[in-house]
Each structure stands twice: as C-alpha cells, then as structure tokens.
Amino acid sequence: MWFIVFLLLWPQTPPELDFNAYRAHVEPLLLEKRPGHARCVVCHSTGTAFRLQPLPKGQAAYSEEASRKNFDMVKKFVRAGHPDESRLLLMPLAHEAGGTEFHPGGKHWETRDDPEWKTLADWVNGGR
Q1: Which residues face 109 on adjacent strands?
Q2: pLDDT tens sequence across 30-52
Q3: Which of 47, 54, 62, 77 could be stapled to 67 by a disulfide with Cβ–Cβ 3.0 to 4.6 Å?
Q4: What's the CA gap between 85 and 75, in Å, rounded?
Q5: Interacting residues of 28 by C-beta distance below 8 A, sequence separation 6+
C-alpha cells in the first residue's frame, strides 16, 4: 500500500514538447484564418509578449529556422503536461469554458471540445 501512495506523491516528469509535432500540428493553427478573427500571427508578430516571427510576404508557411524561433516562444506560454494551466490554450478559450476573461484577439474556441483546442492540448500533453 505504501508503494502506491509513494508513486502517487512522487513528482511526475512533464512530457517533452516535440518540435516536429509543433511544426506539423500547432504552427498551422497559428496561421489559420478564422471567420471574424485575424490569424494569430497577424497580432502576435508585433506588439505582444507572445511574439511570433512575422510570416514573410507571399509565404504560406515558416522556414525551419523561423519555426524553431516560434517554438521557443510558444514553449514560454505552455506548461508541459498541463493544458489547463497553459496560456496558449486559455487566452483564446471562452471564459465560460475556463479560459481567461479577456483576449484582445477574441475567443476562438467556445469549448474544450473544439478540435483545435484538443490538438493543442494533445501536444501540450506530449502527443505527437
């Protein structure tokens, strides 16, 4: 019995955030155009603490170098293994669903069941 209690109390190592999964699944969401909203990169490439690399004019995707810089920035707004404590997921989530009260870019997801929110949560939880 004591062994089970020990395991439950032992600190868990957070999952490692995977760059390739980020580039394949997360970064495209930052470039996605949503009805009634600007793409994340439009606002987050200037004037915010969450600063993404500007997308070069005429480009639809980032170079690997720019993606790595974005990955390093995004990691600052994520608590690996804890999507419910990660600002990347909470800022654009509706307040009624547990998101922050305000996000200047609007609320992109009404619930945690939104496929985009789930994609981000899966990545934060160590998914590939």
Answers
A1: 93
A2: 999 888 888 899 889 988 999 99
A3: 62
A4: 13
A5: 61
